[in-house]
Structures are given as structure tokens and as C-alpha cells.
UniProtKB/TrEMBL annotation:
This is Probable lipid II flippase MurJ. InterPro entries: Lipid_II_flippase_MurJ/MviN (IPR051050), MurJ (IPR004268). Keywords: Cell inner membrane, Cell membrane, Cell shape, Cell wall biogenesis/degradation, Membrane, Peptidoglycan synthesis, Transmembrane, Transmembrane helix, Transport. Belongs to the MurJ/MviN family. The gene is murJ. It is a multi-pass membrane protein. It is found in: Cell inner membrane; Cell membrane.
Length: 515
């Protein structure tokens, strides 16, 4: 479990680092304003559908079914089911894409109501959205193929393919921009081109794994009916986080120009630990839980769930502490270049703090949701999701005026804590979540360790003020991050949560074996 989590997490981390480079280019070339706002809204739409149909409801329903068929009936039946599901997905999404292209002006009115009064942002938002919208077809199909690879325990191949999104995006911004009306057009075309590359790589990997997935015409078989029955109610339940972020974007378009951009860059930094840890845990845990439950190994399923919770909390809590204490320096060092000013970075840092508060809840939702999906239950998360959506909207409306661009991020964080609390409550009520003593102890001591790390960083940063030159700023930030890591490691060692001597010995042994 830990090996698979770290494998997926490692590739996801590389993707996030390249994504950071891509975002730095977007910030430097477009800054904060109408151009950036329009591009971010155009990207939000296909990205939301990717989370809902691709990585969310469809995969949550498809992966357990595919894994069960693979275990019980063999690879031939499983491959035919996957090809039939891929064909059905492509037909449905192509139809949806055509409708979106035709009615894009109305769609933009819904997802960006604040653009309507600004003709430039509205027209640009429509043009860019039409360019990026086909990405949803490509990336949702890619998510299905990646789900097949994950079920075949080819975690690294599936995770590595997503690195190409940011590589293609970087190339588009740097080399295609001179041939476009502005950088936003180049970035938008880069989004769609990356979908072609990702889907191609994943299909090739499936073919190499002996499971070629040329799509079949959809047929309403018993399995397809079961897949749809599980998927439809899960559209809200599994994608509640993305829907909440979309609500945040809708609210942000009603705020002063630039609010969408400030929230986006804050969310991108928050997504580094969330994407690496949450996505890795959810991706690796779902097929493991499904396999144990299909074999009747309930004790092993509980053990896998508990270990995942322990691992993600140990790795997430120090991230929260670091983001809260160092949000300003992080945003300045990473984004204060070109058209993105220091003042813009500090405003975005406030939004980052609001997002970071909810980071543990965002990650734990990724860990707890598979417990429902592995048992074929997609209804309970949807009921919870509807409630959380309503509460998030209420929080947004209450906080948007007094907190402006900090309001939507804080609303999402509060809604995330409600979400994880309800998921845990229903799992525990059904006997699907039993926290053992070790998990409770690890969680409590990880909180203490993260708090100690934050206190140490606050003390040191008050003595060593943030410098004004870029190079010294980078050195200062790297030093503070290193110091925080050391402090946290000392706490973990003191509480016996990590035996670094054993870890070092294990690493040396693996290196020696490879030689």
C-alpha cells in the first residue's frame, strides 16, 4: 500500500512541480486581471467535468466493477467490459461536447455571471471555453484507461501520463503564444492538445499490458446498467469538492476583477499536497479495498483504510502548518514576477490560508470516499454531497461581502470539514470504519508535531525577517522549509512515529540491490 501510494505520489508530485512552472508562466505573462480571469473560467469548465465524469463518479463506479470482473471472470471478460464502457463514455461525452460548443454563450453566463456586464471578459471567456471544451472528452476517456491500468496494478504508468498535461502547456505558452492573439489563446490550445497526448500514451500503455482498449459500440448489458446505476447518483457525491470549487469561481466572478485569478493561484499551491496525497491515497486505496472486500477479507480492508488515514495525516498536517505560516513568502517567491506584483502575491496568500485550513478535510474525503465506492454504495455520498453543496453556497453568500476573495476559499474549507465528518459518521455507523488505537495515536501526535513545527517557524521568522532581493528570498524560503522539515522530523522521532535509522537502512539496502 505505502509503496503504491508513494509511486503515484511521486509522479503526481512531478506533475505538480511542472504545473507550478506552468502557473508561474501564466502569472508572469497575464498577471491578475480580465485576461487571466477569462482563461481560468474557460479551464474550470472542462476540468470540472473531468473530475465529475472521469476521476469522480465514473471511475468510482467503474474501477470496483472492473476489478471484480477481472478477479472473478478473468481478463477477457474484464477487457470487453472496459471497451464497452469506453465506447459508451465517448458517445455520451461527444454529444455533451457538441451541445457545449453550440450553447457556450449561455454556459458562460451560468458559470461566470459576473462576466456579463464586462463585454471583453464575456467574449473572451466564450472563445477560450470553446477551445478548451473538447479536453473533457479526451481526459475523461484517459481517466477510464488509467482506471484499467490501476486495476492491473500499473500505477506508475497511469500516474506518469498526467505529467504530459503540464509539459504540453508549458510548450504552448512559450512557443505558441507568438502565433496567437494573446497568451490565453495559446494556453487554451495547450489544454486540448495535452488531452490528445495523455489519451494516446495511456492507450499505448494498455496495449503493452495486453489489454488493448479499442472502444466498442455501447450496448445496454447488465453490467452497463449496473455501471450507470452506480455512476449517476455519484456525480454529485464523488465530485462535491470540484462542484464546491466551481461555486467558488461563480461567486468570484461577482467580486472585483482579478478575484478569480487570486483564488486560482492560491488553490494551485493548496493543490500540491492535496493532489499528491489525496489523489495518491484515493487511487491506490480503491482497488485494494475492492479486492479485500470481494475476497471477504474485511479485517484487511479495515487495516488498509486505517493505514491510509495515518499516512496522509502524517504528511498533510505539516503541509498545513507550513502553508499557514509561510503563505506570504511562498506566493511572493513563486509568482511575483512580470505582471504579477508583490501586492498581488500577498492578496493571493490570504486566500491560500483560507484554503489551507481545510486541507486535512479535503485529503480525508479522498481516503473515506473509496470505502463507499468499494462496497458499491454511491448513494450515500450523493446525499451527503447535496447537503454539503447547499451549506457551501450559504457560506459563500455569507462570506463573499465581508471577506471578498477570501470568502469562497474559507467557505470551501468549512464545507469540506462537514463533508468528511458526515462520511466518517455513516461509515462508522455501518461498521465500515473502525479506527484502531495506533491510528488514533498517530493522528493526535501528528497534530502535536505539526503545531510544534508551526511554533518553531513563527519564532524563527520573527527574528529573521523576509528579505527584499529575489535570490535572498529564495534562500530564506528554502531555509525555512528545511527548518520546518527538521523540526517536524524531530517530533516524529521523539514520539516514535518514524524510525529514520530503519528507513535509511532500508533505502541503502534497496540501492545496493539495484547495483
Amino acid at each position: 500500500m505505502l509503496k503504491n501510494l508513494l509511486t503515484v505520489g511521486g509522479w503526481t508530485m512531478l506533475s505538480r512541480i511542472l504545473g507550478l512552472v506552468r502557473d508561474q508562466l501564466l502569472a508572469a505573462f497575464m498577471g491578475v486581471g480580465p485576461l487571466q480571469d477569462a482563461y481560468q473560467v474557460a479551464f474550470r469548465l472542462p476540468n470540472m467535468f473531468r473530475r465529475l465524469f472521469g476521476e469522480g463518479a465514473f471511475n468510482a463506479a467503474f474501477v470496483p466493477l472492473f476489478s471484480s470482473v477481472l478477479t472473478r471472470e478473468g481478463p477477457v471478460e474484464a477487457r470487453e467490459f472496459a471497451r464497452r464502457a469506453l465506447g459508451g463514455m465517448l458517445v455520451w461525452l461527444c454529444f455533451l461536447c457538441i451541445l457545449g460548443e453550440i450553447f457556450m454563450p449561455e454556459v458562460v453566463r451560468i458559470i461566470a455571471p459576473g462576466f456579463v456586464t464586462d463585454g471583453y471578459r464575456y467574449d473572451l471567456g466564450i472563445a477560450l471555453s470553446r477551445i478548451t471544451f473538447p479536453y473533457l472528452v479526451l481526459i475523461c476517456a484517459a481517466a477510464l484507461v488509467a482506471g484499467v491500468l490501476n486495476s492491473l496494478h500499473k500505477f506508475s504508468v497511469a500516474a506518469a501520463a498526467y505529467v504530459t498535461f503540464n509539459l504540453v502547456g508549458i510548450v504552448a505558452i512559450i512557443f505558441v503564444s507568438p502565433f496567437m492573439p494573446n497568451v490565453a489563446y495559446a494556453a487554451a490550445w495547450g489544454v486540448t492538445a495535452s488531452g490528445v497526448v495523455q489519451l494516446g500514451l495511456l492507450l499505448w500503455a494498455c496495449h503493452k499490458a495486453g489489454c488493448g482498449l479499442w472502444p466498442l459500440m455501447p450496448r445496454m448489458t447488465a453490467r452497463m446498467r449496473l455501471l450507470i446505476r452506480r455512476m449517476v447518483p455519484g456525480l454529485v457525491g464523488s465530485g462535491v469538492g470540484q462542484i464546491n470549487l466551481t461555486i467558488d469561481t461563480i461567486i468570484a466572478t461577482l467580486l472585483p476583477s482579478g478575484s478569480v485569478s487570486l483564488m486560482y493561484f492560491a488553490d494551485r499551491i493548496n493543490q500540491l499536497p492535496l493532489g499528491v496525497l489525496g489523489a495518491a491515497a484515493g487511487t491506490t486505496l480503491l482497488p485494494v479495498l475492492t479486492r479485500h472486500l470481494a475476497a471477504g477479507e474485511h479485517a484487511k480492508a479495515h487495516h488498509a483504510q486505517n493505514r491510509s488515514l495515518s499516512y496522509v495525516l502524517l504528511l498533510t498536517l505539516p503541509s498545513v502548518a507550513g502553508l499557514l505560516v509561510l503563505s506570504g513568502p511562498i506566493m511572493i517567491v513563486l509568482f511575483s514576477h512580470g505582471a504579477f506584483t508583490d501586492q498581488d502575491a500577498l492578496h493571493s496568500a490570504r486566500a491560500l490560508c483560507a484554503y489551507a485550513i481545510g486541507l486535512p478535510a479535503f485529503v480525508m474525503v479522498k481516503v473515506l470516499s473509496p470505502a463507499f465506492f468499494a462496497r458499491g454504495d454511491t448513494k450515500t455520498p450523493v446525499y451527503i454531497g447535496v447537503l454539503v453543496l447547499v451549506i457551501n453556497l450559504i457560506f459563500n453568500l455569507l462570506l463573499m461581502k465581508p471577506l471578498v476573495y477570501m470568502g469562497p476559499p474559507l467557505a470551501s474549507s468549512l464545507a469540506a470539514f462537514l463533508n468528511v465528518s458526515l462520511l466518517a459518521f455513516f461509515l462508522k455507523k455501518r461498521g465500515a470504519l473502525t479506527l484502531d488505537f495506533q491510528t488514533k495515536r498517530t493522528s493526535l501526535l501528528a497534530c502535536v508535531s505539526a503545531a510544534g513545527m508551526a511554533a518553531g517557524l513563527v519564532c524563527v521568522s520573527s527574528l529573521l525577517h523576509f528579505p527584499s532581493m529575489f535570490l535572498t528570498r529564495v534562500i530564506w524560503l528554502c531555509g525555512m522549509v528545511s527548518l520546518g522539515s527538521v523540526i517536524y522530523a524531530i517530533f516524529l522521532h521523539f514520539f516514535k512515529l518514524a524510525d529514520f535509522a530503519s528507513i535509511l537502512t532500508s533505502v541503502r539496502r534497496r540501492v545496493s540491490m539495484k547495483r
